[in-house]
Amino acid sequence: TTLATTHYSDLKLYAHNTPGVRNASVEFDVQTLRPTYELSIGLPGRSNALTIARRLGLNPVIVDNAERIVRPDTLEADALLEDIKHAKQEAQRAEQRAKERERQAQVVEADLRYQLAAIEETRRDVIAETRETMQAELDEVRGEIEQARRQLSRTGSIGASTHDEFLARAEQQMARRTANREIDRNVHLPNADGEALSGPIEVGDRVWVSSLQASGEVMAIYERSQEADVQLGNFRLKLPLKRLELRQKAPKTEVAAAPIRVQGQGAFQSNAKSPGIELDLRGARVEESLDRVESYLDDAYLSRLPWVRIIHGKGTGALREAVRDLLRGHPLVSKYRSGEEGEGGDGVTVAHLVETN
Asked: What is the pLDDT of residue 121?
């Protein structure tokens, strides 16, 4: 192996054109007049003698005369080599920047993957813990109800209205605690009702509730508040019409079930679940509240409740007056009164329902 250093341009051309021979150069910084000790394989070096002479302050006339003596093609080759060197250095810097960006992107990606995995693990833990808690509460409520039923059956010492009141409260509490669990169980079920349809939603139609990821049947529609009662599994919820997607129209051969509106007394058989003896309207709009009172009175009458408490709050009194105006001429209400001191006073209206036959 032979290593040769030279300023002779013909030797550089020989190395470039001859197999088995390669050019190489050690970089030199003409600004600092110091070598960088960076070996560049494949590129010949250039002579920096005249450049160094100028930098060291040699008489410019002498340097100019020397440049005229040097062969023009040698100067052109040196200039070309300098351009190539700069281009190569810039390419190397660009490659280094690209590698650094790629490394940073890999670090960010790994960090995001770690965070997503942690979030998913936390989500699963929260869901599991919530389900366990809700199941425990549900079992506790069922036990309390069963124990109370046995106690009431043994004693038989309380009035019918108190008995109904207790059962209504217990059933309402149980329904509240189980509603979310029932809906959660349906979250991952596929929607078998097809794609969304156009047209108005009517009683008896099947609808999709995207916020709950569940489908149900429309049981009643309230034009004033633009809401509908939707049966989702064992639970009936009042939802805005704009949140419902029509998926299946009611069959033509069947008469769609209309909202229950009892206009008078009469004999009937009822298996309706008790809606509870309280209806809380606080924070609701007047129109929405009146629709809710109508539906609530129907359900309470069908459940044979003797009286109900409607909580409207005091506020400006507008909601209270609207509710009492509705009760004043309602066929299911025999009388009504303000709440006693221990019942909430003017913030509550107690309505006594007509007796069922």
From this structure: 82
